């Protein structure tokens, strides 16, 4: 079971509320175990999820530990409301890092906090917006916003370690009515637009679009991403080498791609552990950039990119 804030909690897997009694929890577990068993039409994945949920909250001790835990990484990470701006990352211990501009995850964290306050109700005081019990009780849409912020921050950390030959812009604005681009990365292998995501469950490619249990019917993340990248590329008068969707390793076990078509660049969906390799070496079928183009494009991007407002 994923630790992502967007993932179904053990209570949701068992179909009970966090206030359920121990006896209600036990009955729900037995019922879900019967319903999800592969011998009666269930799936191995759902059967395993039920067993894992019971391991998490089945005993009073494990339930207390789960209820009292805090989500790893769910902290303000240096001030989510900070305005986007240049911030070349340097570290005395690890040498010069990639040039970084903007505030990765900042907009998604602000959206999370705004949605959380709206859901809690006007006048309600929220002492800790990252308390696990509060996050788990929030609707999936709100939890997904926090998961996305954490995903963007994790991607930015990997990009920062690529070295001085790379430049990255985070939370890049496209158009008022179109979603932002999470990251734009320029390096020797090319120019990439990156979408960092965590839906809390595995996704797969079907008929040119991502599908999964955590995606709403009609949701088209690849189409929306491609449309935003197309708008940005046109406004900057640049061409992306590829569009990259980065998801947690447990959500995408193996990379898959859509070839370029018309004005749409190649789309690659990869687990997070593969991102550094793709940005450094490219991927099969991907047109590689040139060292000279990096210098030509950097000033164009620096002068033309605008950041989303929190």
Automatic annotation (TrEMBL):
This is Molecular chaperone. Coiled coil: none annotated. Residues 83-95 have a biased composition (Low complexity). Residues 1-22, 76-97 are annotated as: Disordered. Pfam families: DnaJ, NERD. SUPFAM superfamilies: Chaperone J-domain. Signal peptide: none annotated. InterPro entries: DjlA_DnaK_co-chaperone, DnaJ_domain, J_dom_sf, NERD. Residues 9-70 form the J domain.
């Amino acid at each position: 079971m994923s630790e992502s804030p967007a993932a179904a909690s053990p209570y949701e897997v068992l179909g009970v509320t966090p206030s359920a009694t121990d006896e209600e929890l036990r009955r729900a577990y037995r019922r879900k175990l019967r319903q999800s068993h592969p011998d009666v039409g269930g799936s191995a994945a759902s059967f395993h999820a039920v067993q894992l949920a019971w391991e998490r909250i089945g005993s009073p001790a494990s339930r207390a530990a789960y209820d009292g835990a805090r989500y790893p990484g769910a902290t303000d990470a240096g001030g989510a409301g900070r305005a986007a701006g240049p911030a070349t990352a340097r570290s005395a211990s690890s040498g010069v890092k990639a040039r970084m501009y903007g505030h990765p995850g900042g907009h998604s964290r602000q959206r999370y906090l705004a949605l959380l306050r709206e859901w809690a109700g006007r006048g309600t005081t929220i002492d800790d917006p990252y308390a696990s019990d509060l996050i788990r009780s929030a609707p999936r849409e709100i939890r997904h916003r926090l998961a996305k912020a954490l995903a963007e921050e994790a991607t930015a950390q990997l990009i920062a370690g690529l070295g001085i030959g790379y430049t990255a812009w985070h939370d890049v604005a496209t158009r008022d009515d179109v979603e932002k681009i999470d990251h734009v990365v320029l390096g020797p292998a090319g120019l990439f637009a990156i979408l960092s995501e965590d839906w809390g469950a595995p996704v797969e490619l079907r008929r040119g679009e991502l599908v999964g249990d955590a995606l709403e019917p009609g949701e088209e993340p690849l189409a929306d991403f491609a449309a935003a990248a197309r708008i940005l590329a046109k406004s900057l008068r640049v061409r992306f080498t590829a569009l990259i969707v980065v998801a947690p390793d447990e959500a995408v076990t193996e990379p898959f791609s859509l070839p370029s078509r018309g004005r749409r660049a190649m789309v690659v969906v990869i687990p997070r552990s593969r991102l550094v390799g793709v940005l450094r070496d490219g991927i099969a079928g991907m047109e590689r950039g040139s060292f000279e183009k990096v210098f030509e494009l950097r000033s164009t991007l620096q002068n033309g990119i605008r950041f989303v407002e929190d």
